[in-house]
Design a protein that fits this description.
CATH class: Alpha Beta
Mean pLDDT: 96
CATH architecture: 3-Layer(aba) Sandwich
Helix content: 25-40%
Structural class: alpha/beta
Strand order of the largest sheet: 3-2-1-4-5-6-10-8-11
Number of helices: 7
Shape: globular
Distance between the termini: 22 Å
CATH topology: Rossmann fold
Number of strands: 11
Strand content: 15-25%
CATH superfamily: NAD(P)-binding Rossmann-like Domain
Largest sheet: 9 strands, mixed
Number of domains: 1
Order of helices and strands: EHEHEHEHEHEEEEHEEH
Length: 215
């Protein structure tokens, strides 16, 4: 089982993934910025760790990551402020990737979104543009490394109940429950077929473990 550092530990998907990862026997340290969120994270079974990754340099992030087996990036600025979106979703993410390399940790899982990429096609006047640009840059930086990376790219997130079934073959974005994204994230950690793959997915008709084994 793995020692996992999950960055962005109080996000909606992260809070659903943490108990699944713990149940699978992993030890999860969940990095959060707000100390008020420690109780919520601890309730999942994960160990909360307060650190502001937006301000950490590569050396500080390397110290944070060292000793773990897997890094999961599930953090985000939450939109609204383009400057902070670039600072977190692009710059801090890229520093965390470089720090993972420096720390000698091989496995890195990035939570992205369906349609992310340099050719995202979002209008520069659209409020989503900064996020699209930031994710594209961070994802491309990760792909260029020698890490055992996986980029998870779910479609539009819903609050529906988990169904445990996904589609990893469609070129069209639809939707998927956050609970299923959490289950995909937990299953990806130990699935070697996902290494060095970008996995786009919607709700579908194939069991998560089966779908991931076949990507």
């Amino acid at each position: 089982m793995a020692r996992i550092l999950l960055i962005g530990g109080h996000g909606k998907v992260a809070l659903l993934a943490e108990p699944l990862l713990q149940a699978a026997g992993h030890h999860v340290t969940a990095v959060i910025r707000n100390p008020d969120h420690e109780t919520d994270v601890a309730a999942t079974g994960a160990t909360p760790l307060v650190a502001d990754i937006e301000t950490f340099d590569v050396d500080q992030l390397t110290n944070l990551i060292s000793g773990n087996d897997v890094v999961i990036w599930s953090a985000g600025a939450g939109g609204g402020d383009p400057e902070r979106t670039y600072a977190v979703d692009r710059d801090a993410a890229i520093r965390s990737i470089d720090a993972t390399v420096d720390a000698g940790v091989d496995r890195y899982i990035m939570v992205s979104y369906f349609g992310a990429g340099l050719d995202h096609g979002v209008d520069p006047e659209d409020s989503f543009y900064a996020y699209a640009e930031a994710k594209a840059a961070a994802d491309e930086h990760l792909r260029a490394t020698s890490l055992d990376w996986t980029i998870l790219a779910p479609s539009a997130l819903t609050l529906d109940d988990e169904v445990g079934l996904i589609d990893v073959t469609s070129d069209e974005s639809s939707s998927v429950a956050r609970a299923d994204v959490a289950a995909v994230l937990a299953a990806t950690v130990a699935e070697p077929a996902t290494i060095r793959k970008t996995i786009t997915f919607n709700t579908g008709e194939v069991a998560i473990a089966t779908a991931l084994a076949q990507v």
